[in-house]
Amino acid sequence: MAEASLPRRRDAAASRERLLKAAGELFADRGFDQATARDIGKRAGVDPTLIARYFGGKAQLFIAVLRAEETGEVAGDLLGRGKLESVLDRTGRRGPGPVFQAGIRPYDDPAAQAAALDELDDRVVAPLRERFSRDGDVDPELRAELITAAFLGVLLGRRAGTFEHLGQATTPQLVALLRDLLGAD
């Protein structure tokens, strides 16, 4: 029997992983709103209807991507040792991911926006807020949000090429300046 006539084996776990990877890339490149299910399926090499089967829909796939992204995070707050370097290196290669993008430009889908902002709070704002509370800051919530917003501006300006020197700066240069600017130890 010819190989072409044999039924294709289905591998749900591999298809699910390919969808997560493809969606993560497209959400990072285009944002949630501009990444279509059809494009995700095409990049993953699977039928886009599998998004509904495995995840429930595009918004739930987005949430799964956010959770999968979390596994590579360096523990601790943005001002902790190693965190700035990690985030700058990762975002320098592919730009701000879906979590940071939600802080820059809201998504049209309320569920996606809420999930991304929850992740932004869990990963960046809350650890800073806890640091500033421990340090006795009079307004830890505002300071944590202000530093997060300033950092998002640096990521956006660096990636967009808005500022020539910012775009050309190395990670160590940026880390030294950011630590000084943001008042890190």
Tell me the layout of helices and strands.
Blueprint (H helix, E strand, L loop, with lengths): L11 H19 L6 H8 L5 H6 L2 H12 L13 H12 L3 H7 L5 H25 L5 H21 L3 H5 L2 H12 L3
How many structural domains does the protein architecture include?
2
Element order, helices and strands? HHHHHHHHHH
| Weakly predicted, low-confidence segments | none
Structural class: mainly alpha
**Mean of the pLDDT scores?**
84
What profile does the largest beta sheet have? none
Helix coverage percent = 55-70%
The outline comes out as: globular
Distance between the termini: 69 Å
Computed CA radius of gyration, to the nearest angstrom: 19 Å
In percent, how much strand structure appears in the residues?
A: under 5%
Count of DSSP strands: 0
In DSSP terms (H or I, runs of 4 or more residues), the helix count works out at 10
Structure, explained:
The protein has 10 helices and no strands. It has 185 residues and is mainly alpha-helical. The protein folds into 2 domains: 11-67, Orthogonal Bundle (Arc Repressor Mutant, subunit A); 74-182, no CATH class. The longest helix has 25 residues, at 110-134. It is globular. It starts with 11 loop residues before the first helix and ends with a helix.
Task: Please provide a brief summary of the model.
The protein folds into 2 domains: 11-67, Arc Repressor Mutant, subunit A (Orthogonal Bundle); 74-182, no CATH class. The chain has 10 helices and no strands. It has helices at 12-30, 37-44, 50-55, 58-69, 83-94, 98-104, 110-134, 140-160, 164-168, 171-182.
